[in-house]
Amino acid sequence: MMLLSIVALPLLGALVTPLVSRRSTAMLPTLLAGAIGLAVVSILLSQAMDVLAGTVLIEHYPWLPGIGLSPAFRLDALGLFFALIIAGMGILITLYAHFYFAGKHGAVRFHSLMLAFMGAMLGIVTSENLLFMLVFWEMTSLVSFVLIGFHQDERPARRGARMTLVITGGGGLALMAGVLLIGNSVGSFRLSDILAPEAALTADPLYPWMLGLVLIGAMTKSAQFPFHLWLPNAMTAPTPVSAYLHSATMVKAGIFLLARLNPALGDTEAWLYSISTAGMATLLTGAFIAMFKHDTKELLAYSTVSHLGLITLLMGLSTRMAMVAALFHLLNHALFKAPLFMMAGAVQKATGTRDMRRINGLWRTLPALAVISAIAAASMAGLPLLGGYLSKKMFFIESMNASVTPTLQWLTPALAAIAGLFSAAYSFRIFHNVFFNGKPRNLPVWPPKNPDVGIQVPPAVLALAVVLVSWHAKTVVHGLIGPVASAAEGSVLPAYDMHQLHHIGTAFFMSLAAMLGGLLLYMAREPLFRLYDQLPPADAREIFEWLMTRTGSAAERLVHGLENGSVQRYVALIILSAIVLAGPVLLSGIQWHGGETLTPIDPLTALGLVLLMATAIGTVLGHHQRLFALLLLGSAGLFVTLTFARFSAPDLALTQLSVEVMAVIIMMLALSFLPQTTPRESSRLRKGRDLSLATLGGLGVGLVSFAIMTRPQSTIAAFFLSQSKPGGGGSNVVNVILVDFRGFDTLGEITVLGIAAVAVFALTRNLQLKDRIPQERGQYWASNPHPLILRTMARPILPIALMVSAYIFLRGHNMPGGGFIAGLITAVALSLQYMAGSLAWAHGRMLTPFRPLIGLGLLLACGTGLGSLLFGEAFLSSWFGHYDLPLLGHLELATALLFDLGVFTTVVGATLLILANLGKLMTVHGPGEEIG
Amino acid sequence: MEALYAIAVGVLTTCGLYLVLRGRTFPVIMGLTLLSHGVNLFLFASGRLALAAPAVIGESARPTDPLPQALVLTAIVISFAMTAFVVVLALRAAVELRSDHVDGVDPEEDWRP
Questions:
Q1: Which H helix or E strand runs over A72?
Q2: Angle A743-765/B66-97 helices, nearest 10 degrees?
Q3: Which end of chain B has the least Cβ crowding within 10 Å, N or C?
Q4: Rounded CA gap, A359 and A351, in Å?
């Protein structure tokens, strides 16, 4: 529960904050967020002693163990370290944001999103299951997207947000692939299994892929070259977001991932070279560009990129104590970078700008902030005895210990020193440019406003922390960083020798050179800026936007190329893909004849099948003459009926017969409106293509059918045959299956039937067929729509048909028949009245509208099913009994009969609704009264 | 007999597919009907072909497999409902788009220079 609450508290808070804050003071969201931050920190601190001593806390919640999906949380020293930074920094940012937003609109949204982000971040660092870590990982990307685009009405904010989402989201996908590979190789997604020595991932043949994919995920998140682009563009976010997400927490997620998986994936040449190269490139690029940025936040962003590169480089160096240096620098960076961001935000509030060419000499207006920034910037520059100095010196020492090839032995320290030099220069710049360097020039807000005292408290706390950590560096390194680094390495590291930091050796001179060089570089800034401006402008943002547009238009072309709006093409593609998917399987040496002896051909059946084929082919050949083709189609249906009847399926034959009648009537009705002929418009090529597709498809289906029929049958029929009488109380097994064994299916099917009928009703409702083609009418269509003989014959047929229908319905359980067939027969008989009489005549004599009939049928069927629940049986269980009743004699009564009555009612209602509404369209007077 | 039956299923499917690929709605509807005939016969045949052996208890010594029959029975009714729906859809499209081409546009209009 405890570890779960670390993640759950902020996430719940994110949901609750907007709800409770609707009509309250601006204080409430701040208090809520702050309280949650404090609660998380106190939970963490209560476990800190044990965890730092080496205990690993694990909480496991079984959910879907079968596929390795179970939420599990893990708190070890590494997780604790990151979680403390996340939650602790969260409290200070909450306080800062309170004054930054100063009760303005958006504060509630900010606090809610901030809590969501904190929860997701805590989730990443405390997940035991890598799959759940991925979920939290994506969540940080999404929340970050929303937070960067916080000012939705500003174009740069939206663009920056989109760029971040594309890069970090893409990296998340790569990471997911990598995690899946890891999980597949280990057989578990739990960190305990993955980090165990038995996992032996580095020996896996897929190891390069795992490393590469995980690395892409980590590098995109931690803004490593060349994915660093998004970070400077994310500076459109409100300053609290930049200070929290883009300096202290989210960008450290990638580094956390590398540290977390270090025992499983690290300690190989590939790890060493790929990570240290990426880190070094990032370190140099970031440090170089930062110097030349005039916007305070952009300078800080590039400096963050550079420091992230430094930490990554240390992770990659794989020297014995590099992990200590990396984590110590991570702590220092979080402590000195966040107050600088807060300073930038406060200065922007005071002066209205972030341009350092205009902001100068603010020390008179903001003396307290000047002192705070001095401490933070000094630590960033690596001035002696501050945290930044110590961790950078560690870095220099490790860079010399790196076990790279001898020719490169000098390269790493040299590049490290150059980067240190630039880093010192931009640190001097951000402090000196803002607070000294002459007088302010042309500020939007003049005189500069004096900011709230409150907004200076969080950076002051952090500056104090910088001093404390520097003062007690030895305690911090030995007490906190040591255990954390041991957890990251997966083995206990010896205590870091702090004496070498005070030793005057190569590393000392490297630090000194970087410091003095940085100072010189800063002095020479004016000519350097001019030089930089002359460099060819390579705006990465524009390149990115260009890439995005190109990708978008390429995708558009592809989609429009495939989807040209032609249904014919889509159908062809569907059939083609079915053939392509099934073809190779069918051609891979299947024995078509399965071995069963074929039944002999009897001439009559053969004649029927040949005529069936002939009518089908005739339909195709004559499809340009539509009425002719329709008549052939109707005969094809009749031959299908005969086929069913011949091969022992009387129920099917009865159903097919009545359906065929209805279907032909419907199509005939439609044809009276549609053109009578089909134009010959297909090109020869199109016909050839369609014919070959159709032939291939038909060939495949025919062959599969033959292969199935000639194979020995294994069927579950025996159950139905033996249980039909004792279990279902009927001897017609097909009907018993429909109303009893598979009654649930039937319920679904009559529901579909009802829906189709209602859809027909809805579609014909406002339809007016004015444009019947008059010149063609004389050709086929009778002049008298209701001939006398038909009218006279139809009326006596009705009662006879209804009686037959009732008979078929009642005997259905034991003999061929049942609700479907009886319903269709009734519908046919009634529609005959419509045709013979006329719509108005017949409709006037209908006792009930059709739509309620459909509903009634469904209710009846459903109610029968529910009724069995009352008797403690499963849904749709049936019950039957035999009775001797006076007059009627021996009678079997079954609840299945009630269900079948529901089927019957639905079928009648649906069929007549369809038919009457289609018929209504064809009447000369147009829609008129609503039918149904 | 199985071979002839399979050929019939194949021919029905071929005719159905060819008509489904036509450009006007009415042949497509006819094609769908033929295709559902083919599919129904195909499914039905998975219970094997038996003469004079209906799945009614007491009617024959070795009744045929009733399960495919029950499945095909509902399939017949559903394909009827589908046909009716497609017919109405075609009518509606013909009225609103003033063309009975499946793409909603008369190709001849574009072909004229």
A1: strand A72-75
A2: 10
A3: C
A4: 8
Mutation test of the interface with chain B: which of A602, A701, A824, choosing the one with the most B Cβ atoms within 10 A?
A: A701
- How far is Cα A320 from Cα A556, in angstroms, rounded to an integer? 52
Helix (H, G, I), strand (E, B) or coil at B63: coil
Q: Please indicate whether, in this complex, the C-beta atoms of A648 and B102 are within 8 angstroms of each other.
A: no
* Cα–Cα distance for residue pair A633/A664, rounded to 1 Å: 8
Residue A648 touches partner B, C-beta closer than 8 Å: yes
Establish if B93 touches chain A: CB-CB under 8 angstroms.
no
Contacts of A887 (CB under 8 A, 6+ apart): none
Contact A815 B56 (CB under 8 A): yes
Lowest mean pLDDT among A594-608, A746-760, A803-817, A887-901: A887-901
Residue of chain A with shortest Cα separation from B17: A694
Burial class (CB in 10 A: 0-12, 13-18, 19+), A187: exposed
B33 vs chain A: nearest CA distance in angstroms? 8
The answer to whether A726 faces chain B, any CB pair under 8 Å, is no
What are the Cα distances from residue A11, in Å, to A33, A97, A109, A114, A559?
A: 11, 19, 14, 10, 39
Closest to A229 (Cα-Cα) out of A217, A220, A238: A220
Quick one: which of A599, A713, A593, A610 has its CA closest to B51? Answer: A599
What would the mean pLDDT of A537-556 be, rounded to a whole number?
A: 83
Determine contact: B7 vs chain A, CB below 8 A.
yes
**pLDDT tens per residue across span A110-134:** 899 999 999 999 999 999 999 999 9
User: Within 10 A of A509 (CB to CB), how many other CB atoms are there?
Assistant: 12
Q: Which of A204, A200, A185, A180 is nearest to A264 (CA)?
A: A200
The 10 Å Cβ neighbour count of residue A223 is 30
Strand partners, B101: B24
**To the nearest whole number, what is the mean pLDDT of chain A?**
86
Share of chain A above pLDDT 70, in %: 95
Residue of B nearest to A637 (CA): B37
CB contact under 8 A, B88 and A575: no
CB A161 within 8 A of CB A146: yes
> Closest Cα of chain B to A706: distance in Å?
5
The better pLDDT of the pair A136, A876 is held by: A136
Which residues of chain B have a CB within 8 Å of the CB of A753? Answer: 77-78, 81
Selected residues 432-471 of chain A with any CB under 8 Å from a CB in chain B: none
The shortest C-alpha distance from B111 to chain A (Å) reads 11
What is the C-alpha separation between A400 and A733, in angstroms, rounded?
A: 86
Q: Are A8 and A43 in contact (CB under 8 A)?
A: no
pLDDT tier for residue B113 given thresholds of 50, 70 and 90: very low
Average pLDDT over residues A527-549: 80
Identify the CA nearest to B4 among candidates A843, A914, A710.
Answer: A710
The confidence score (pLDDT) of residue A925 equals: 53
pLDDT of res. A74:
93
Of A572, A706, A734, the CB nearest to B73: A734
pLDDT digits (tens, 9 = 90+) for A14-28: 998 888 776 656 788
Q: What does the pLDDT look like over A481-523, one tens digit per residue?
A: 989 998 888 888 888 888 887 777 788 888 888 888 888 888 8
Mean pLDDT of B22-48: 93
If DSSP codes are grouped into helix, strand and coil, which group holds residue B46?
Answer: coil
In angstroms, the CA A318 to CA B79 distance is 68
Chain B interface includes A27 (CB < 8 A): no
Whether the pLDDT of residue A900 is over 50: the answer is yes
pLDDT at A675: 85
